[in-house]
Amino acid sequence: IRVVKKFPKFSKPLQNGKPTSVWFTLPIQFKLNTNQKTTNIYDVVDQMPQFPGGDKELFKFISENLKGESPFGQCYVDIQGRVICRFVVEKDGSIGQVEVVRSLEPPMDKEAVRLIKSMPKWIPGKQNGKVVRVWYVIPINFRLQ
């Protein structure tokens, strides 16, 4: 934005002999200084992170630790749906940077984030044989009665 604001004023294009406004798309390339240490977070890697014990244990952890009874008050009875969250599995397997990607209701979003933050350390992901930080996406299903 700073660079674009320094551009000289453009002359308006003409349409049927009259000045008109048009959208202009300007691609801007950035090049990172290769001497800087980067902390990339990968979306996909050679070996994705794993919950200890695999998917079966992950689903068990969720079902045993999700507060699925309606502690959210009467206005949230008979709600069902899912909160989709993403989080970073850090190099040491800890959980970092939890985000709600698709919301259901604020109390359920908060509960999904709480649940993810309470997870034990994961087996970290690897890229080219090196342990790396990886985004992981997970749906948390709610069925409140």
Q: Report the average pLDDT across residues.
A: 83
The end-to-end span amounts to: 50 Å
Classification by helices and strands: alpha+beta
> Can you summarize the main beta sheet?
5 strands, mixed
Order of helices and strands: HEEEHEEHEE
Radius of gyration: 23 Å
SSE layout and pairings?
Elements: H1 2-5, E1 14-15, E2 18-19, E3 41-42, H2 55-65, E4 80-89, E5 95-102, H3 106-117, E6 125-127, E7 130-143
Parallel strand pairs: 3-7
Antiparallel strand pairs: 1-2, 4-5, 4-7, 6-7
Would you mind describing this structure in some detail?
The chain contains three helices and seven strands; from the N terminus they run H-E-E-E-H-E-E-H-E-E. Strand 6 and strand 7 form a beta hairpin. It is elongated, with a radius of gyration of 23 Å. Helices cover 19% and strands 28% of the residues. By secondary structure, it is an alpha+beta fold. Strands 3, 4, 5, 6 and 7 form a five-stranded mixed beta sheet that branches. The protein has a two-stranded antiparallel sheet with strand order 1-2.
Supply database-style keywords.
single chain; about 140 residues; alpha+beta; five-stranded mixed sheet; two-stranded antiparallel ribbon; 3 helices; 7 strands; about 20% helix; elongated
Brief digest:
The chain has helices at 2-5, 55-65, 106-117; strands spanning 14-15, 18-19, 41-42, 80-89, 95-102, 125-127, 130-143. With 145 residues, it is of the alpha+beta class.
